[in-house]
Predict the 3D structure of the following.
Amino acid sequence: MAPHQLPNGYSAPLAMDSASGSPVVVEESKTVQMKKRLGLMGGTALIVGTMIGSGIFVSPKGVLAGCGSIGLSLVIWVSCGVISLFGALTYAELGTLITKSGAEYVYLLEAGQVLPNQFAPIPAFLFAWVSIFILKPALFGVIALSFGIYAVEPFFGDCEVPDVLVKLVAILCICIVSFVNCYSVKLANKVQIVFTVAKLLAIGVIVVGGFIMLAQGNNEYLMEGFQDTTHDLSSIALAFYDGLWAYDGWNNLNYATEELQNPFVNLPRAIMIGIPLVTVCYLLTNISYLTVMSKETLLQSPAVAATWGSRVLGPASLIIPLAVALSTFGAANGSCFTGCRLAYVAAREHHLPEVLSYVQINNFTPLPSVIFSTIVTILMIIPGNIFSLIDFFSFTAWLFYGATMACVLILRHTRPHEPRPYRVPTAIPVVMLIISVYLVVAPIAHNPRIEFLYATLFVLSGMIFYIPFIACKVRLTFLSKYLESCVGAVDDGNHHSAEEKV
Ligand code: ARG
């Protein structure tokens, strides 16, 4: 069967296997710029290794504070896992229908075609604008800072850790991760896999420790069940925010679909393996915490995992900050990997300076976009405390997750006959759309803070750049020339053709 033609002339490597009737990859598109280096294992590690960062070691406190009872907190941890799985399955349909990297950005770009011509790219552009300049660097920065805190803390005992030192270590982490990502995709992939295995082992220690405690009869706190459950919906919404933060990263593989071998099979498979695995880990870790800590102790603990460590592991509890440091380093690597793919894809669509769409010709890494993302991230963490950006993050992220859920429904309508190697049951994107609207509206309705207005204004301020540079096509030629001269040894990926048979 001839390769299927997408509307903008992008040729998707899709055909049907005549024996099984299932879709197979027959040839890479001529415009694919980076090699397919990610297998099922690398893809799953990109999801699991970015989802598990520092959240599971600190968020249980926020979830419990929000819902009041141990029983409801466990229900919320599982529900957040189900929401993430539903979200990711919806993205699996989009990722196998549109096989370009860039996740929300490319889906909004394709579904935006339903709008009148001059407005079509606006949703995608605004997403790229807010993600590339705030969301992705903030995520990368927050994770690197968490690494800084946990890497430095053991050396200071009870003394306060100097802020400057934490930031310096965070910057060091950002630079190392960026170097790895500039140097080779294979190396970045290996780092991701090794650190994912390491953090799963660390979680395994906590889970096994919990089981031993349970076997010794430490179940009194768990037996409290739903006692003291709150009835306040807004405080339950806050609990969900904390839980969903720990699960964030479920959409990461969609940022690198072009680099995934056999995406039609491996994208849904990596999602179906990765997200349930994380959900089980999180549930069991929470149960383990509750075998040795009462609700009150957990709520007072500054770092839940550390308190667990000192009660169960005794002198060996030093492995806990080490485990969190390892976990955050791996998550930082995944965040860098996917964050710079977004800048690279947006530049390829002429929504950022073209130089950012260049690929290093020897290593096939998106070198200029990695350097760009690194600089933005470092500039963001130097001045103040970016942890406060997490609220901004949840609000804006769910705004765009919701819009992307709507893309599935729009594309089913506009492209009904296109092959969908994975088709999500329609109820799932519909439920996810409702959940997204709730997660955006609830915090405004319950506590209308000015920050939400700022966030909305920031998203819309992207129009200041959209109108001259995209709509009116003003080109800053001197700037492009200068940037090009800075990155001598790179080539525009559009000139490559990678014709591997998969
Ligand atoms: N879930 C992670 C944590 O618990 C944070 C994920 C950051 N998200 C991302 N897309 N990089 O620390």
In short: Strands lie at 4-5, 11-12, 15-16, 23-24, 358-360, 490-492. The longest helix spans residues 122-152. Residues 50-51, 53-55, 139, 143, 246, 248-249, 252, 331, 335 surround arginine (CB under 6 Å).
